[in-house]
Amino acid sequence: MAQDTRLVEALSFDDVVLVPALSPVEPWQVDITSKASRNVAVNVPLLSAPMDTVSEWRLAVVLALLGGIGVIHRNMSVEEQRRHVEKVKNHPIVELADIAVYEGEECCRVRETMRTLGVRQLPVVDAAETVKGYVEFAELETCSCGTPVAKLTKPGPVFELGEERKAIDFVKRGKLDAAAVTLKSRFLGAVTVHEALAVYSPALDEEGRLRVAAAISPFDIRRAQALDGFVDILVSDVAHFHNVNVISAAKKLVKSISTDFVAGNLGTREGVLDTLSKIEKVDGLRMGIAGGSICTTSGVAGIAAPTLFAVMQARSALEELGVKLDSIPIIADGGIRGPGDAVKALAAGASAVMTGYMLAGTDEAAAPLIRIGSKLYKPYRGMASRGALERRYAADRYSRVAKRVEEGIEGLVEYRGPIRRVILEFVEGLKAGLGYAGASSIPELWRTARFARITSRIGAYTGVVKTN
Ligand SMILES: NC(=O)c1ccc[n+]([C@@H]2O[C@H](COP(=O)([O-])OP(=O)(O)OC[C@H]3O[C@@H](n4cnc5c(N)ncnc54)[C@H](O)[C@@H]3O)[C@@H](O)[C@H]2O)c1
């Protein structure tokens, strides 16, 4: 057969922009709820990459409290990975010790403050200002002053702003010794209540526990079975899923699990078509090869499927099969530097994005904080870097050595503070992006987004020295 020498165009995030459109919504009204896999809803369309400098239980807890989902890496034994998942699943949403019942004047004061602020819900925080969840302020009884007594009940999902609800949620740790306004400024910092309400919305399973996913190799049935039914999603974690051996291993593996299975990484339409035609149960597609900031695959092997291109490829495969985009969600994985790239990935057809880089510098990331001179950093490395591979082979005696070449670097990223700051910026960026594109939700963005190719970099701060 003659070699096919046609060039296809593999677009990357910097090659395109989304063009603005008539907008029926204000950014704060934009709904960014989505799916991380067929049966797993998220309030923030973000998954942490299963990397050993990023995703362990601590990050997964806070990310789920903020509405996204963490994917626990697999550079550890099966037992250890299960323990990480357990820690997330058993983590309290509301710490019972922090719960108080407010009565009388105190109750009236809370209600009045919240009414003044136009707020129905505030997050519960601990001493480190980590979001613990929500408390419900339900109109169950009436206190002496005639207003309802606040009772803290099971945490619920975030209510739509402007929606009339009987229940009023509010946030507080310990006794209400300060007005909600004070709490707002202490906890929320410079952001508005509207913004904060949009962010703090835990991703919970049917039993009200935090959601969490775990990375597996399709060859590792033992690991998959140990996590099956316990974790929300099993995420395939190999560089080239479109390999006959990987596909046949996955075909076998899915027969023994009931948890959502995300296939990946894939880069092409053909890869998706082969995956879906050969594997009975595929609940999501992890798309993108060699797009990551720490990935050296394109240099080492000359291969890449840039994330934006890979998402577009998956979308065309699904459309060809007549499969709805939200029934097999596409996860854009690799090279997402911030919300702008994420908006482009979503517009191309993704339901959610996966990132290591954006989260690697946060307090909650799995690597230790390092000081060099006056600056703080956190280590960050690719999962095919020498260090990560050595750890895998040492920690997991069932791991296979498929290649003897490194495809990732080990480096440092600047310290970024608590993850909630990153997520807040991410959520607000997404909402702004959808607002510009004239879409009030992600499915609407799929239908209406228009891309334009750009001929040169659209740069912010060009020629300006940034001081903040
Ligand atoms: N997303 C990316 O772009 C990317 C690229 C490289 C590595 N990685 C990550 O690095 C880690 C190691 O990756 P890995 O796939 O080498 O893991 P691995 O060593 O567990 O390999 C798993 C299987 O994937 C197949 N495979 C992998 N590379 C292949 C290739 N070049 N040609 C043919 N088949 C291939 C083989 O069947 C192999 O046994 C994983 O965590 C992976 O996700 C990611």
TrEMBL record:
Coiled coil: none
Family matches, as Pfam families: IMPDH
Catalytic residues, chain numbering: C295 (thioimidate intermediate), R397 (proton acceptor)
UniProtKB keywords: CBS domain, NAD, Potassium
Keyword Acyltransferase: no
Highest taxon of the lineage: Archaea
Positions of K(+) binding: G292, C295
InterPro entries according to UniProt: Aldolase_TIM (IPR013785), CBS_dom_sf (IPR046342), IMP_DH (IPR005990), IMP_DH_GMPRt (IPR001093)
Domain IMP dehydrogenase/GMP reductase: 10-456
One biological process term in Gene Ontology: GTP biosynthetic process
PANTHER family cross-referenced by the UniProt entry: INOSINE-5'-MONOPHOSPHATE DEHYDROGENASE (PTHR11911:SF111), INOSINE-5-MONOPHOSPHATE DEHYDROGENASE RELATED (PTHR11911)
Protein name: Malate dehydrogenase
Organism listed in the record: Pyrodictium delaneyi
Lineage: Archaea, Thermoproteota, Thermoprotei, Desulfurococcales, Pyrodictiaceae
